[in-house]
């Protein structure tokens, strides 16, 4: 890895504080030709060359394992799975060991959770598999009090525990725990909304088992049972540009959302939790983008179905989202 990074650095300009690194200038020569024939055979004037695409900068990020490690550098990823693979390669571990990542904090802090945006100066901490535990749960009310999210690479985990809820009374269950199985049925590879639906469908009064994997903790993190606050989650980077990651498709370098777009994204994220028991800033951002420039809720629903049809959002959720988008556009949020 060190040799490869040294080879990469020969073609790159120096980096400061996680800033983008751009390839050095490349020599460009035309193909060899027969000069004599070119001087005697008439030819049509050459067409103007197409404008060469502007090269994208090579973005380099610093990373550590959250429980403690040397600092590594990663670049060249285009989606979440590739990001995890790059981190795993730096630290010589399997990508399947990584549960989730936080930005600029080694703690299991859901306000710092890596979502759909990475600021160009953000430091990435990878939380890896720790102890496995099994808990028995008896549902005493319709809702367990869990908010589920996922890492975009097949692992769903607990993002919030509602105070006073069924799960809150089981003190061994913590924010950040990966839900690996329900009643010995593996849910690895399931999206967060699928896991939330399975938990919601568990019958009241009947015990069921959760197999959980907690993130490996550093010494100063042992004994914590963090609970994310109800507001200001997932704050986007304050940098001028961010790398937008997608569960499907490639990453892209984009301007950060405007204050109005940011307000809309947070409101939609709140609605996702209320209706589906999930939080996902990437999903909320996609929903807001689908609602841009739409004239009525029918057009919005059609646009949303074209990109997120698998979710099967209920109509009442769509109308509430449409209302929230209208409130943002009119400055009522």
From TrEMBL:
UniProt feature, compositional bias: Polar residues: 1-16
**Residue ranges under compositional bias (Pro residues)?**
43-56
A Pfam family cross-referenced in the UniProt record is PDZ
The record's region (Disordered) falls at: 1-57
Residue ranges of domain PDZ in the record: 134-201
Q: Which Gene3D superfamilies match?
A: 2.30.42.10
PROSITE patterns attached to this UniProt entry: PDZ (PS50106)
Please state which protein family the record places this protein in: Belongs to the GIPC family.
**What's this protein's name?**
PDZ domain-containing protein GIPC3
Please give the organism: Danio rerio (Zebrafish)
Write the lineage as a comma-separated list: Eukaryota, Metazoa, Chordata, Craniata, Vertebrata
